[in-house]
Amino acid sequence: MIKAALKSLLGRKLRLLTSTFAIVLGVAFVVGTLLFSDTLNRSFTALFDATVGDVVVQPAEGEDVLPGGSTELTVPGDLVDRLADVPGAARADGQVGVAGVYVIDSDGKPIGGFGPPALGGNWTDAPAANGLPGLEIVEGRAPEAPGEVVLDDQTAEKSGYDLGDTVPIITADAEARLEPTLVGVSGFPEGGSLNGASFAAFTTEESQRLFLDGKDVYNDIWVTAEDGVSQADLRDRVAEVLPDGVEAVTGDDAADEGASDLLDAIGFLTTFLLIFAGIALVVGSFIIVNTFSILVAQRSRELALLRALGASKRQVVRSVQIEAFVVGLLGATAGLGLGVLLAMGLRTLFGAFGLDLTGQPLVFEPRTFLAAYVVGITVTMVASYFPARRASRIAPVQAMRDDIALPEASLRRRFRLGLALTVLGGLMLFVGLADVVDLGNGGWWTGGGILAVLLGVTAMSPVLAAPILLGARRLYAATFGSIGNLAAQNALRNPRRTAATASALMIGLALACAMAIIGDSAKATVDKAVARDFTGDYVVSSVFGGEFSATVARRVDRVDGVADVVQQRGDVARYDGDFAFVIAIGADDLDLIGVDVTAGEPDLADGTVLLDEDFARDEGLGPGDTATFTVASGDRDLTVAGTFAPNALLQATAIVSIPTFEQAGYPDRDRLLIVYADADADAPPGLQQRLDDALADQPTVTAKDQDAFAAEQREPIDQFVLIIYALLGLALLIAVLGIVNTLALSVIERTREVGLLRAIGLTRRQLRLMITLESVVIAFLGAVLGVVLGIGFGIALMWAVRDEGLDVISVPFDQVAIFLALSIVIGVLAAVLPSRRAARLDVLRAIATE
């Protein structure tokens, strides 16, 4: 039986090729994601290991605030000499490091900013922990005087500057624009990179002047251990001489904490990509089931003969499963190779967004190889089991017949099973989205519900498809005559096979349609919120969405035609362990920006806070209560002055005054400026030009009117939706291959029929048209089912989050129409190869085929 199975497989190599493609693509997505994830983890772990000392002395407060939040906390400069004298310490080096230091390239554009940070600080030659080499000067020299800078090698290359050139640099501190001279280039001589981050290094004194108000303080201090002294021992000795408010941690702990925090923050990438790999595998499973169903049906006489010769039902199942094992093995191997190329592509793609991993080789962990073969072989064998089991139940005499359609009783059972799955999926969706019952992570319930509905509709699709196929038959007959009628009859001949092929396309288009609704609804919500809450005439903000120098506000305020400028600051905090976002504005600016105080008083005196009304209700807080926030400087007790309604320009948990914000340890930097024009000023275009002129030397900051601001808020949504479409494109590609495979196998199955049609006068052109029409109706069926499901999923998801601010449900019918039109194009393209193969069949040989 094993020998017979392998010979059967070798005899049908081309028939199984597209089925193998489905496995190859799905496995490649899994492998590529795991390779990229492991490479990302390794690169950041190595980077953090090279950017800490053996012992790191740092401020003790505020460590529980979300990593990435900015802080003004420092350690005294006089500690450096004291720490250098600690027994076991070889040296101590003060470190200055801040974010928001952007290098402007020779074309006047900022480098980086999206994703990896733009860093600035002081240059030191301090060794990293465990003797690892840190950044070193690879060209030129270290900075020795004010007005000199060293850039990392990747930034220097991207910027287009050479040694001796003047380098424009934008900072978020008091001196907003710098123009130092490039005197050196730094890098990792033994390999490695900053993973897309940029680093501009100055002398220690200059760094303190620029970023620390000229004070003799540091952000942290590295203490290097003498040979033979462990990090733990040195940490304990250092801790004995530290003042209150300062702590010592080992370099290994500091590196692990920094890397784990960052990797947790970007860990969603792995999950996000694996979800789409799972979608691709689910779609591929439909193709495999369909392919093996057709192949088993075509081999019915062969299997019947084996049964007649004494083969048991179990042996027949094993015969088909052996074929599936070989297909899965080959598909997983090819998918492993393609996954390497995909990982390289992901590395290049994320490099375009600033996450540069080109200096890091791909990391091959054993789990990647294991996952490739487990996924590829398991999915193929499970998908082929059901056709194999059906084959084992065929009696020898029954299998000699050419009729392979499922009996109606089987379709009725499938419909009942599909209906039960759909109802179950609907209940799971309700539990996951409505949050009525606390049964754990709602996301798993929602995802499981969507999968159950998709599988349920797939099971019911042979029955659901009947009206659409009958309608297509009438339309085809009226439009294309007997050729159209034959095409529709072919689709109706085996509704289970037609529906299964269409279901693969249905899944991809259902998810694409749901995402289109989510994206369009999010953009409509943004437009509504901006139109409702945009009270100023212009908004000044960073093109990277980060902080910028407070001096920009003073510069804008001096522009002719500007009446008022409202500064808005913001940063992360924690309340009762959960993250919160705190906004700071001027105490007298509440009325100016239209904050709707729903309870209490519109008072922003020092030490008071206004809370979002939903947050206050959930936490049981009201006017007069005390709210304790963990901020950069530690725990701060704030008196609740009142609550406010959600506002598009104040997307915050809490609002405080700017003095209260600074007292909490946050830096003197703005995130947003709301500009109000003088009532007597000239037309807005004139003011826009003057604002642009005032910000001309600040390429990281722009001024926008309401329409431009709304467009800026919509842009990330469009980018996200496009990424989703690109990832779903893999599932759609597999679905198209499924249609091609089904049509090709169907042509082989109907070889004699095709020969007879050609013999009675059907031309090659008519034959190609017939197969194309059959392909189009399959694709259109999948599109109709997918669009209907997608609209339902999209509306349900948006309805579930209506209380989270996304209160507009918008169905983009233009995109829905494009999806339907795309299905027709898919059908035409999928029929090209099968129709050409059919048209080239020799008529006499086709008629003689059994």
UniProtKB/TrEMBL annotation:
It is found in: Cell membrane. Residues 19-240, 498-683 form the MacB-like periplasmic core domain. InterPro entries: ABC3_permease_C, MacB_PCD, Macrolide_Exporter_MacB. The keyword Protease does not apply. The chain crosses the membrane at residues 16-36, 272-297, 324-350, 370-388, 417-437, 449-470, 499-518, 722-748, 769-796, 816-835. Residues 275-396, 727-842 form the ABC3 transporter permease C-terminal domain. This is ABC transporter permease. The keyword Transferase does not apply. Keywords: Cell membrane, Membrane, Transmembrane, Transmembrane helix. Belongs to the ABC-4 integral membrane protein family. It comes from Nocardioides marinquilinus. It is a multi-pass membrane protein. The lineage of its organism: Bacteria, Bacillati, Actinomycetota, Actinomycetes, Propionibacteriales.
